[in-house]
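Hi L.,

You mentioned the student needs an example of a multi-chain input paired with its predicted structure. This one should do, with 997 residues in total across all chains.
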Amino acid sequence: MTIGKKFLTTVAGTLLASSSLIGSAAFAEQTQLNALFMAQAAYSEQDIEQMTDAFEKANPGIEVKMEFVPYESLHDKIVLSHSASDGYDVVLFDVIWPAEFARFGLLSDVSDKINSTTKDHILEGAWTTVEYDGKYYGMPWIVDTKYLFYNEKMLNEAGISKAPVTWAELAEQAKIIKDKGIVEYPLVWSWSQSEAVICDYATLLSAMGGEFLDKDKGPAFQKGGGLAALEYMVDSIKLGLTNPNSREYSEEDVRRTFSSGQAAFAVNWTYMYNLANDPKESAVAGHVRISPAPGVANISQASAVNGSMGLGIPSNSKNKDVAWKYIQHLTSQPVQEDFAKLSLPIWKESYDNPAIAQGQEELLKAAKVGLAAMYPRPTKASYQEMSSVLQVAIQKALLEDQSPSEALDAAAATISDLE
Amino acid sequence: MIRHSKTQTCLIYGSALILALLLLLPVLWLFIMSISSTRDLTSLPLAWIPTEASFGNYRDLVSNLDSSAAQSFLYALRNSLIVALCATGLSLLASIPAAYSLSRLPGKRRRGLLFAAIVTFMMPPVAIVLPLYSLMATLGLLNSHFALIAIYCGILVPFTTWLLKSNFDAIPMDLDEAPIIDGANRLQVIWHITLPIAKPAVGAAALMAVLMAWDEFFYALLFTNDIRAKTLPVAIADFAAGRVADYGLISAAGIMATIPPVLLAYFLQKSLVSGLMSGSVKG
Amino acid sequence: MIRFSRTATAWLLLTPMMTIIIGVVGYPLIKTVYYSFTAAHLAAPGTTDSWIGLKNYIKALGNSQFLDSISNTSYFVCVSVSAEIILGVLVALLLNQKFHGRTLLRALLILPLALPTVVNAMMWRLIYAPDFGALNALLTQIGLIESYRSWLGDPDLALSMVAIADVWKNFPLVALITLAALQSISKDLIEAATLDGASAWQRFWNVVFPAILAPVSVALVLRTIEAFKVFDIVYVMTRGGPADSTKTVSFHVYQEAFAYMRIGSGASYALIVVLISSFLIATYMWLLKKQGNTA
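Structure written out for the whole complex:
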């Protein structure tokens, strides 16, 4: 029975692919799409399920099987499924992967499917997520960056009336809050050995005017702003401002710590705003405010890292046209506007839509600044390896095994040897 | 009989109590987490006893078929059952005649072959996983039950052969000779003479095999990618990493994945112990 | 009906087993050796033929991350296996005494053994959680530590904490094996020793110890071989962090081959691991043979 079904799916897929010129959808019957998403941050599983339900209702005969894996497994799953004859048809991919995926032909080039009107209506920062070497490998879907969240009640108790606009101010305010005994560790971050720590580091690096790579693609993070960023992180732990558990936290741990009232400040993605203000999920609902991540006097107004993600079609998918239809549905303006609570739309116009702003004016205000300031992580085919070398170096400094400059110098030496 | 002094008795009961707590508490806590609300689990000081116990997490995992958590859990349960049972069945089919042959029939390289089997069983998986991956990819078998069943057979067959061989050794040879003289072939002898006697040993081997296949993670992680073939350990690992904020749900999934092997092991406690013994003590 | 000679029958009966072992283990192993001399890449077809000689091995032996992962693995093996043996033997000695509830306690030993490894890893990760974990709560409430601390986030501690989780799951195995050996010691022997005025320690050393030495040493080597493969528990608990302090060799090979897609160099790492394991396996075989000769 399964074999029969598989056979039909294959036939339908082949027919569909060959008949795509005629544009007939009749063959789409019995098509099953396999889609890969991640199970944390950004859209919730329920959101994606609802979006998909709507798609299936509008397109009878198409069934979408969704798979949710943790972010940490996402890259390896895409790579591993590349050799499967029954792989995915739609995958969610991170902004840092297109270089590698393009080099090894893991994702389909969809440049010809994107017309110039679409291009004009979507945020420029979002496009960089799916573009590599002038080609597009999918549609941007989640446009995201790290923001500064703060617990207004705690700030008021400490007599602070204005949220920090520079990182130095943030440290000062955290010191006041700690000294007044309002909370033991005012700051919480996601600094576990994972991509999350690189995102926080990149935010600071951009604020302090640093660079990951110089013009010749050689490492440059070990000096200037890159070094200052790590020194800032290490100092905040040494001074007892940052929760030392941050070194083993991922984004969800940050949310839990902040939502249970154990931190005054947190750096996290968009999705935390509405969840931390939801009384069912949070003990500090109503006190949570958001602002762009701070800047540094004379260097930057605000800081942000490009943490966006796109939806692409693996090159071995047998249902590319149906897959594209599904991607178009998920990334369409109406769908994104309907689900604009945990992740903001990629569409420029949405940001002027009062219905979107309602109840989250502050998030949109922060997003306008943050999304414009998004700093990219390096585009490099060996990014995964570079990132893990850097993760270890940053952790060694955070754990005070090595000084920040020692750790970064060692990482730079290793990274300059990578292709 | 040696009688214990009072101090000795106290010491024995004291250590027995500590041991019991050591064995039970972690699992008990896992169960408590699975019925507690997130509120209780994130309160300080920690609420050891839930303010209100709820089996909602279990309900979410088995009944709410529209949710992706339930879907991935139930499919994984199905996949684990299929893979573990098929791999065990096939392994026994291959290892029973092999064990018989190694135990009964002449052959100079017999012992060498048995040792080779043990070595393959102990080989670290990384030694063979790369070509297996490419092979399965070429055959179009990635993300299928078949791939996992085949690989698990490779792990289980040497193990079950070894286990059974040492048990067959204990059965007197004379029993075989009479039917052979009467014209029966070896397969008939195995079926009618050896297996009925070795039933407990075969049961033990099957049990150990099911437990091993149920527990396997490394190959399952690499060779499956979605609900069509993903087994429980991989599904649990995905749950645990992705939903760090939802302790209750991941605990419930853990408890449910534990129930089948624990029940199996308890019902067949005797065979388990004898399996462990003959497997690890005899050559 | 055709009748085969005894030798032919012997080989025929072995065929299914041999087919499976050669197909699933033998052939891939040879292929791994071949890959280790190439620049094979997971997603680039054709690279499996790019012969590069010993380059992978030279790089592997000079790679400090790999060498660190070997020392991490060795530490994990030493700590977890020695704890499992000590705890296992002590528990077996306890269960060999007569007391109420002994059967129940022995049944409880099965629980960790049957609990899936991944669930075990997840359970301990939740118990070790720095903020809302049960371990911190318990230790502060009974006054053993003053304030909450990090268990898996401290590089000096993380690997030992992972080892503890492994010990909890596997010491019952050692206990059950030892217990069976203890129960095969004849009661008369012990009683005779007691009547001769032997102290408890002398009884253990002269009667009990020789009887359990063989099975315990087999269990020791078996556990060593198993512990050396450790992957799942690390994958679920720490993913190698913090600062790579819990990265084991299996995890390193996984990363090299499937995250960085370098199958060729991954194969060379894998074979170095095989070499070390072979040494352990040879020890095991030697023990088995020795026992086979005495039994």
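You could point out the following to them. Chain C touches chain B through 105 residues (CB under 8 Å). Chain C has a mean pLDDT of 89.

Best wishes,
N.
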